[in-house]
Amino acid sequence: EHARFKDWLGKVAPDEAPGQLAMAGWLSAGLFIKGLHSAGVECPTRDAFIANLRATDDWDGNGLLPKPVDQEKAFGKPQPCQYFLRVSDDGSRFEPLDGWTPFCGTKP
To answer: Beta strands of 1-108 (E only): which ranges?
Structure first.
C-alpha cells in the first residue's frame, strides 16, 4: 500500500515529498470508500453508510495501519498519543521534542 500511495502522489503532485497530511488524506479516502462499500446498497443513504461503517472492525488502511481499527470503539475517542521529533541543528539526526513527552488528544 505504501507503493500505491507513493505512485499516486507522484502522479498528482510530483514535486511533493510524501508527508503525514497526504497520508492522512489517503487513509481518509480509503475509509470513505470502505464506508460506501459497507453501505451495501446501490444508492447508499447517509444512515446506511454510518451504521455499516461503524460496524467495521477490521479496517487497517490496506496494511498502512499497525493493527485493524474497530470503528465503533474508535468513534468519538481522541487520537492516541503522538511523539514528535525534529531534525537536529546540524541535520545529522532526529531528536525528540520535550524529552519524549507525548502529545495526547483530549475528548472535546
So the answer is: 85-87, 94-96
